[in-house]
User: What shape does this take?
Amino acid sequence: MFNEVKELIVDRLGIPADSINENTDLLYELGADSLTLVSLVGDVEEHFSISIEDEDLANLATVGDLAALVASLKE
Assistant: This one.
């Protein structure tokens, strides 16, 4: 799950894959602003055929958090 999420981040933000790990901060380390984060979440929702609630977004800090959320929604 993490690797698929990482690839979506690489595609959306153009960041080298080797600079992303589970502890990478979505906003500060990736340089994503809130609009970019919303676009990324849209990519994730479409790719995995899931729906992420707005209140869940508030709890996302790292790439690992996003991957864990996707995994829980796919169950």
